[in-house]
Every structure is written in structure tokens, then in C-alpha cells.
Specification:
It comes from Xylaria multiplex. This is F-box domain-containing protein. This protein is of the alpha/beta class. The chain has 2 domains: 1-41; 42-368, no CATH class. It is 29% helix and 21% strand. The chain is built from 11 helices and 15 strands. The chain has helices spanning 6-16, 30-42, 51-55, 59-62, 87-109, 127-135, 175-180, 203-223, 244-249, 266-275, 343-357, and strands at residues 43-47, 67-73, 116-124, 141-142, 157-163, 170-171, 188-193, 234-239, 280-285, 313-318, 329-331, 338-341, 365-375, 385-395, 421-425. The strands form 3 sheets. An 11-stranded mixed β-sheet has the order 1-2-3-5-7-8-9-10-13-14-15. Helix 1 crosses helix 2 (30-42). The protein starts with 5 loop residues before the first helix and ends with a strand.
Length: 429
């Protein structure tokens, strides 16, 4: 059994997951013990109360770790904190201390290592405190005290995912900027800010959402990743997008105005400025055309000349509402479906997108897409609808296609690869 290559043993173990504890197979031989340990310690999920046990893992086993998911466990009884206006401050202190301790452990124990993927941001509460959390300011955002300036520098983290939870209190979006400054060797970041409650944003919740977007915009502008701060070359920013079918159930829904008198969305402009130095960016959420090209209203002294010298992959999947409370798609007459392109908002958006692509000299692939509820084109289910992509896709000359990830290219002649290609899906005329 020891003569089997380690890779073969690990492949066998992958089929045994779920068939009892893997540790029982560690007694077969030394090779199997090594394979079991590599599998068991490659990915760990811990919470803030587990850090002492995490530190107790032997140094040899720590070198096996590639993925660490960290959950912030709040032990405070939020409902008992008096006065009530101190609850958020106490939460911010608890979250900040948990993150600081984690980063200190990583700085001490993983010094000299690299390649770790760190996922954090999810916050859990005791059952008694969670009741208060849900009933009182459940949309509240938690900031890192002093923007994390007291955090240690951690060089072993190569990939960061910040979870902005859709249920209950969550960290502010700008926390990712605070963390990036303490993780100088990052290769990629993912801000996963899906928000299940976007459709319910009203009054105070809408104001908190607007402030959170503005906070991320300000943090990106202040960080100035192009000149002052290191930034990973690959960025994914996935923010909330109301489901098109749910929007059909709430015809009076109006997205909270995130533009105001400025005439453009500050977050869209800040993300555009951020993208100038990137190699890949993947964006989902509510944005306007200033994501692609400066708006006329933007201050000239803060808008860099648009240029993406390194950008190779540019993926954008937008929500149907605009940041100003308008729509990119109108209702098809006599239906609840929003699948009719709105010329007033969509045309300027596409024009800005096309203009930006001309300033991306090494661009290989780009996509501008929406999810829309469309009527199925089948006689036997004529009344059924489905959520489909409405998209424009660009492919540069000489870039080969992948049938698994880009099935719209199947059937193209090989000679077509020598030309730039533009694919339109569900765009009609």
C-alpha cells in the first residue's frame, strides 16, 4: 500500500468523504496517514473562540493549510447592553478584536509562508442575542475600529474573501480596504456582498445601504491603490442584485437613490478608478455608466485619464435598477416582466462600455450582462418564464475559446479566431 503514489491515495480518499471519519484510514500506512493529514488540514473552518486550539496545531500541519474560513462568534448578549446606542460600538470592538487576534496568529504562525486563502466577515450570535439582532436594526453595518490600523502585517495570505452577510448585522463594505492594506501579498480579493433584503430597503435600512456604498467609495478613493497602496491584480466585487422574478412581484419597488445631486454614482466612479491598475475585474450589482467612463459631472481633478493598460478580463453583470432609482429595462406591455431595454438608460451605458474597451490594449475578454425574466419560446409552455442572460460579449483576436465556459462560440470556424468577435445574447434587435 505504501507503494501507491500519494496523488492516487488522495484521489481514493476523495471518494471516501462522507463514508465515516477519514481519520480511520490514517492507520493503514504512513503514506495513508500523510494523505489523510493533507486532506484534513488543507481546509479549516474555525470561529473566534477556536483560535487557541488553532494555534495548538503543529507547525508541520500548518504548512498543509491552504483555505481558512474564519467566523466571528459574538458572545455578547446584545439585548442587555445599556444604553442601546452603545450596542454598535460594543459590536465593533468585539469584531475588531476578533479580526486583530486572527491576523496576529497568522502573522506569527505563517511567517514565511504564502498561498493561504482567507475567508472572513461572517458574524454569528448566540440564540438569545440573535433575537435582538434580528428585531433591532438588523441592517446595521459594523466598522473596524480605527480602520484596522492596529492590525499586524500578514504576508502569508494570497487570496481574501470578505463575506458581507445578507442576514443580520454585517461588516461595512469598506472593511475590505482596511484589510487589503494589511495583506501586502494578495493576488486576488472577492467582496461577496449579496444582500437578500435589497427588495425591502426602505427608510432607515435604505439610508444604511446608501451610507455603506458611500463608505466603500470614499475608502477606495482615499486608498488610491494606483499610487499609494498595494492592490491585488484580480478583484471580484459581487454586491446585491434584486432577483428579476421578485421584482416582478413588487412592481412599485424603487431602488434607493445613490446618486443624488452629483448626477453620477460615486461608487461606480471609484470602482472604475480602482480598475485602472487591475488585470481582471468581475463586478455584479447596481452601477451606472460611470463604471466604464467618467461622467461629465465628475470633478476633473479627481478623474484619471481612462486607461486600462493591464486589464485582460472585464466581466460586468448589472442589476435591472440604476443607482439613481431608474431602470435599464422597462415592463413589456401588459406583463410584469422587465425585459424591454430602456433606450434612455441602456444606450448611454453600452456606449460608455464600448468606449472603455477601446482603452484596454491587452483586453482578451469582456462581458456586459443583465439577468432578465423572459418568456420561454416554446409552444407547449407559452405562459412560462425563465431568468436568462441579456448580454454583450467581446472576444479579442487570437484568444481561443472554451466550450465549457463559453458555449456561444461552438460552431465557429477556426479562422474566426483571428478576428475580434462580439456575441449578442437575447438582445433582439
Amino acid at each position: 500500500m505504501d507503494k501507491l503514489p500519494l496523488e492516487i491515495i488522495e484521489a481514493i480518499l476523495s471518494f471516501l468523504i462522507g463514508c465515516g471519519r477519514l481519520s480511520q484510514y490514517a492507520t493503514i500506512s504512513r503514506a495513508w496517514q500523510k494523505a489523510v493529514e493533507r486532506s484534513a488540514f488543507r481546509s479549516l473552518h474555525i470561529n473566534s473562540t477556536d483560535l487557541d486550539q488553532f494555534v495548538g496545531i503543529t507547525a508541520k500541519r500548518r504548512t498543509l493549510l491552504r483555505h481558512l474560513t474564519f467566523t466571528i462568534k459574538i458572545t455578547l448578549d446584545i439585548g442587555r447592553i445599556r444604553p442601546r446606542n452603545q450596542r454598535l460600538d460594543r459590536l465593533s470592538d468585539a469584531v475588531t478584536r476578533s479580526v486583530r487576534r486572527l491576523l496576529q496568529v497568522l502573522a506569527d504562525e505563517f511567517d514565511g509562508q504564502h498561498g493561504l486563502t482567507l475567508t472572513l466577515g461572517r458574524i454569528v450570535f448566540p440564540s438569545d442575542a440573535h433575537h435582538h439582532n434580528r428585531s433591532d436594526d438588523k441592517h446595521q453595518r459594523i466598522e473596524l475600529i480605527d480602520h484596522g490600523r492596529q492590525f499586524p502585517i500578514v504576508r502569508g495570505v494570497s487570496h481574501l474573501t470578505l463575506i458581507v452577510d445578507a442576514d443580520g448585522r454585517r461588516v461595512v463594505l469598506s472593511a475590505v480596504v482596511d484589510l487589503v492594506k494589511r495583506l501586502p501579498n494578495l493576488e486576488s480579493i472577492l467582496i461577496w456582498g449579496e444582500d437578500a433584503d435589497l427588495i425591502d430597503l426602505r427608510d432607515k435600512a435604505a439610508a444604511l445601504y446608501q451610507n455603506d456604498r458611500q463608505g466603500l467609495s470614499d475608502a477606495l478613493s482615499d486608498a488610491n491603490f494606483l499610487t499609494n497602496s498595494p492592490c491585488p491584480p484580480h478583484v471580484s466585487l459581487w454586491l446585491g442584485r434584486p432577483d428579476p422574478m421578485v421584482l416582478g412581484m413588487f412592481p412599485r419597488f424603487v431602488f434607493p437613490d445613490c446618486v443624488g445631486p452629483l448626477g453620477y454614482d460615486p461608487l461606480s466612479a471609484a470602482v472604475r478608478n480602482w480598475s485602472y491598475g487591475l488585470e481582471k475585474i468581475d463586478i455584479k450589482g447596481v452601477f451606472d455608466s460611470s463604471l466604464f467612463w467618467p461622467a461629465k459631472q465628475e470633478p476633473s481633478n479627481t478623474s484619471l485619464s481612462p486607461s486600462w493598460p493591464r486589464l485582460k478580463q472585464f466581466y460586468v453583470n448589472l442589476a435591472l435598477p440604476t443607482p439613481s432609482g431608474g431602470w435599464y429595462f422597462d415592463h413589456t406591455p401588459n406583463t410584469r416582466r422587465r425585459d424591454a431595454p430602456c433606450e434612455e438608460t441602456l444606450q448611454p451605458l453600452v456606449a460608455s462600455w464600448a468606449r472603455a474597451l477601446e482603452s484596454m490594449p491587452v483586453l482578451a475578454q469582456a462581458r456586459l450582462a443583465f439577468e432578465v425574466e423572459t418568456l420561454l419560446n416554446m409552444a407547449d409552455v407559452a405562459s412560462e418564464t425563465s431568468v436568462e442572460d441579456w448580454s454583450l460579449r467581446y472576444q479579442a483576436p487570437g484568444v481561443s475559446f472554451d466550450p465549457l465556459n463559453r458555449p456561444w462560440e461552438i460552431g465557429l470556424d477556426t479562422s474566426d479566431l483571428h478576428s475580434a468577435r462580439l456575441f449578442l445574447k437575447n438582445c433582439g434587435n
